[in-house]
């Protein structure tokens, strides 16, 4: 269903070599601390990306901080998805790691393969859907954050055009656009969303070009579901609002950055390591949202009026208490057909397979 | 909003998007005219991008940043030059290796510079002219690097076709044995050409990291080095055509984003493909005229040379 399905081709080869050597080094170094639980983390990007992999590594650091006397952690960054990933995961499993987090969608099959060979090792795979005796899965309900952001955008837009930069038209991103648009039009029925797909998770140049194009077409808020801060910089340069992705991107455009949807794995990682320590670990599927702390919002821009902040906080509270759902009926698609009837909310199944736009989004979902 | 009013912004964005391609393509054009095929453009761009950015952050001076970027690009290219010119390594393999090396090296240098914001270059503003409808922003509202890249086109052309040094460089690229027999230092000329190519690639990369999206991110050139390489063939080794090619490529890139934003129903994957499709199409059209390719392509392109052979 999810992110980072695209392998990095050329870079991947170089990355694999680095990754493997890091893995080897770490394996030897921690042989001294034998009683401690060894926990391994596999990242698809560099931890310095200040985005997706950075946030996962923050989770690892949180584990060290909370349980440092009982565990040691190892991480391998820049691991390309595919066959190379299997070697890295195998290396971690073979060097005594008893719990391994593989944090990208493309690690799904390699994780399952290695898990089969190491029944005594527990695995946690992010954003995937295949589980096994010793493989659990977890992901975040990021669309909940987009509901809050959509409401803020509805209050802040003056041109009533929101520019939305999408990575790939996968259900996670399409669902995010829909959740955003529903909340946006609840506050401001005249507002519309224009989507530009850049077909990349991380291409600063292209993301900046997309932001410029949307701004030239009249958008006064730029929302992104890509990972580089380039759209924030562009919005700041043009004196307009923007919403960041994955982590707090305020420093790239302090006058422009309204807030960002932040992925926070800290609590989950600490809980799962604790579960292994006390023997209660089970191969479950966790899909956490704002209520579990897995989805957070970066600090609001001080320029957002107090009543808007209050409204945003209220929406957050309602999502946590279950009073509000991001896809609360009636929800109509672009043709005006009611897809989610009044009194109902979208099922997880519907959200995980979302491939249609709600009313208020321009254009069609690329198929 | 009136869709026609978008022409101005599209033109303005097109020139900026074409700038890194133009720098790199002009550099590679001179390299190939001297008979050397350096496939390491992407790597040299990345090293230039990270070094320029790092220096600009440290010193606060964009000029120093761009100078260092050019030097860093040239230094990376010198590695290629030593390997292929003096140690007679295969140019294709060495060029590919240079790209892989550049990706890794730039990531290593850039480790401490990820997530640091930088101010871009100021844009030109001439009251009256910049405010002109349609062309104002595109022609009079860019920053200095965009103008420099365009100014480099006639300079490279004049050098290649109107100076003695340019004639010698082309002679070396056409027939290195004959040029050697006439007493020209084939290897020295090629070495200098490769350095120039590296410096231009470095500038193109630094334009991305210091101006276009002022930040450093691993692999941020995202394949623009390869496009620059294609542009050289596309241009049949003519500087002015390389510029047109860069504009065409930049224009299609920007246009497809606008088409999406306007909600016109065309698959976005197809649109993302368009710039590359346009390149392939033009290459096919040019290739139909075999004589033209033969006449323009340096005859010794990619061939190794040893003075004693």
TrEMBL record, chain B:
It is found in: Cell membrane. InterPro entries: ABC_transp_permease (IPR001851). Keywords: Cell membrane, Membrane, Transmembrane, Transmembrane helix. It comes from the Bacteria. It is a multi-pass membrane protein. The chain crosses the membrane at residues 6-27, 39-60, 66-89, 96-118, 138-160, 189-208, 220-237, 244-264, 270-286. The keyword Phosphoprotein does not apply. It holds the Pfam family BPD_transp_2. PANTHER family: ABC TRANSPORTER PERMEASE PROTEIN, SUGAR ABC TRANSPORTER INTEGRAL MEMBRANE PROTEIN-RELATED. This is ABC transporter permease.
């Amino acid at each position: 269903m999810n992110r980072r399905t695209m392998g990095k081709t050329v870079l991947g080869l170089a990355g694999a070599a680095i990754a493997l050597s890091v893995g080897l080094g770490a394996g030897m170094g921690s042989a001294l601390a034998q009683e401690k639980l060894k926990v391994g983390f596999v990242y698809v990007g560099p931890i310095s990306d200040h985005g997706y992999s950075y946030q996962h590594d923050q989770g690892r650091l949180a584990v060290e901080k909370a349980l440092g006397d009982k565990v040691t952690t190892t991480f391998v960054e820049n691991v390309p998805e595919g066959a190379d990933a299997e070697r890295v995961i195998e290396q971690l499993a073979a060097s005594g790691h008893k719990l391994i987090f593989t944090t990208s969608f493309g690690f799904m099959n390699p994780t399952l393969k290695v898990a089969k060979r190491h029944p005594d090792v527990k695995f946690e795979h992010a954003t995937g859907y295949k589980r096994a005796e010793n493989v659990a899965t977890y992901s975040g309900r990021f669309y909940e954050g987009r509901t809050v952001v959509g409401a803020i955008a509805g209050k802040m837009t003056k041109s009533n055009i929101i520019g939305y930069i999408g990575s790939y038209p996968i259900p996670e991103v399409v669902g995010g656009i829909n959740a955003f648009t529903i909340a946006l039009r609840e506050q401001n029925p005249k507002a519309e969303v224009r989507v530009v797909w850049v077909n990349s998770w991380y291409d600063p140049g292209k993301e900046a070009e997309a932001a410029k194009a949307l701004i030239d077409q009249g958008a006064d808020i730029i929302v992104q579901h890509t990972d580089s801060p380039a759209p924030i910089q562009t919005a700041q340069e043009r004196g307009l609002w923007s919403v960041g992705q994955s982590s707090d991107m305020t420093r790239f455009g302090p006058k422009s950055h309204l807030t960002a949807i932040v992925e926070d794995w800290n609590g989950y990682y600490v809980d799962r390591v604790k579960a292994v320590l006390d023997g209660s670990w089970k191969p479950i599927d966790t899909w956490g949202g704002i209520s579990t702390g897995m989805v957070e919002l970066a600090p609001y821009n001080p320029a957002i009026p107090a009543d808007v902040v209050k409204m945003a906080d209220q929406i957050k509270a309602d999502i946590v208490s279950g009073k509000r759902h991001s896809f609360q009926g009636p929800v109509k698609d672009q043709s005006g057909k009611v897809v989610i009837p009044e009194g109902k909310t979208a099922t997880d199944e519907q959200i995980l397979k979302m491939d249609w736009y709600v009313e208020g989004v321009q254009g069609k979902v690329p198929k | 909003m009136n869709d026609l009013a978008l022409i101005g912004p599209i033109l303005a964005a097109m020139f900026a998007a074409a700038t890194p391609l133009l720098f790199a393509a002009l550099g590679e054009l001179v390299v190939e005219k001297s008979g050397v095929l350096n496939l390491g453009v992407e790597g040299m761009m990345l090293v230039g991008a990270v070094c320029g950015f790092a220096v600009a952050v440290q010193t606060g001076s964009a000029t120093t940043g761009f100078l260092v970027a050019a030097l860093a690009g040239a230094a990376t290219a010198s590695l290629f030059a030593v390997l292929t010119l003096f140690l007679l390594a295969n140019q294709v393999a060495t060029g590919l290796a240079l790209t892989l090396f550049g990706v890794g090296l730039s990531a290593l240098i850039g480790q401490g510079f990820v997530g640091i914001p930088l101010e871009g270059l100021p844009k030109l503003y001439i009251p009256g002219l910049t405010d002109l409808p349609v062309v104002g922003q595109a022609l009079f509202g860019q920053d200095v690097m965009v103008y420099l890249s365009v100014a480099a086109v006639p300079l490279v052309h004049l050098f290649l076709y109107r100076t003695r040094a340019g004639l010698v460089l082309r002679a070396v690229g056409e027939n290195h044995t004959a040029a050697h027999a006439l007493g020209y230092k084939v290897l020295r000329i090629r070495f200098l050409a490769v350095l120039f190519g590296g410096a231009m690639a470095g500038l193109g990369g630094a334009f991305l990291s210091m101006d276009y999206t002022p930040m450093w991110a691993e692999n941020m050139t995202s394949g623009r080095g390869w496009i620059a390489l294609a542009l050289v063939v596309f241009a049949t080794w003519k500087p002015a055509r390389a510029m047109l090619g860069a504009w065409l490529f930049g224009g299609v890139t920007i246009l497809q984003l606008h088409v999406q934003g306007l909600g016109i129903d065309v698959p976005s994957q197809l649109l993302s493909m368009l710039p590359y499709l346009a390149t392939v199409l033009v290459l096919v059209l040019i290739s139909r005229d075999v004589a033209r390719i033969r006449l323009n392509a340096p005859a010794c392109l990619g061939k190794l040379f040893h003075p004693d052979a």
